[in-house]
Amino acid sequence: MVQKYYESDADPRILDGRTIAVIGYGSQGRGQALNLRDSGCRVIIGLRPGNSWQRASEDGFEVYPVAEAARRADVVQILLPDENQAAVYRAEISPNLKENTCLMFSHGFNIHYGQIVPPPTVDVVMVAPKGPGHMVRRMYEEGKGVPALIAVQQDATGDAHAIALAYARGIGATRAVVLETTFAEETETDLFGEQAVLCGGVTSLIKAGFETLVNAGYAPEMAYLEVLHEMKLIVDLIYEGGFTKMRDSISNTAQYGDLTRGPRVIGPEAYAAMEEILEEIQSGEFAREWMLENLVNRPVFNALTKADEEHLIEQVGAEIRRFMPQFQK
Ligand code: NDP
Ligand code: MG
Ligand code: MG
User: Per UniProt, where does NADP(+) bind (predicted)?
Assistant: First the structure.
């Protein structure tokens, strides 16, 4: 079984007297930095001039250029977009890293695929919340936490694991649960999850169902409510109590259809595609493709994003949501 940690397993005192530089103040940067500060940690922010800099200053943080923040820090948590991390690391962080610094990530991509190769004189750890940054913040404010993964890639000081655990406690994760993993396992499962199930799988499933109904002549608004709007209600039940709780709430007719038709939709072809996608992640082929895509200014990323933004389901959805009270600002 995987090793689990809770609040009492983490000793926050290991962070006493250490300055944590959070590099980047986007989704994860903001959530993690605010929680750490409220937990009593000393936090500074490293950025370039721009919107995030402004926001971090307004939130009351000391903000420095990335190089200066790295120079001042004992723990450097890199929360830049994954595709920018290697360039910023080479130019601004690496020349300023003191010996015995704890270099930290919330996703293993750059270490696992060798885009960043830290010197042997620093710790290399991961604290990866399993949820978006605004949830990391909201749950903390409610006295709860978003679960997180921790991993130690390199332990130069002997303190790497204790620092990772104390940091996880500082962002509130030990209030939920912290699981021990490796950079390889986190990176590969995270990429697979978002590609095959959470993001890619779900949007493709919704789109396929929507197009099937609309092509058969049903009203797009009906199709939208049926295959997109209701998705959340079903997923919430699964989240709360697994398939069993969901099936307790739906009709017997729905349950019979679920059990007998679902496996036809996600059949042998889908399993084969999932295996192929996982192999591309494990072999580094996906990482190479995504890094090269960024080098040429993302032609595929931009074209596919635009095509989906213009899809009928997005237009119909915007119109329907306009009058639903739960979506009013
Ligand atoms: P965001 O895109 O939300 O934020 C990126 C931040 O980096 C912004 O503040 C941006 O500032 C800053 N930035 C970008 N380029 C530079 C640069 N060259 N120099 C200085 N600052 C720069 O990132 P996320 O929070 O989504 O992701 C951060 C990490 O967290 C990634 O490793 C990701 O995989 C991981 N993660 C993300 C999750 C999520 O839900 N978002 C969940 C779990 C892990 P500016 O305003 O100047 O552009
Ligand atoms: Mg991810
Ligand atoms: Mg129904």
Answer: 25-28, 48, 52, 133
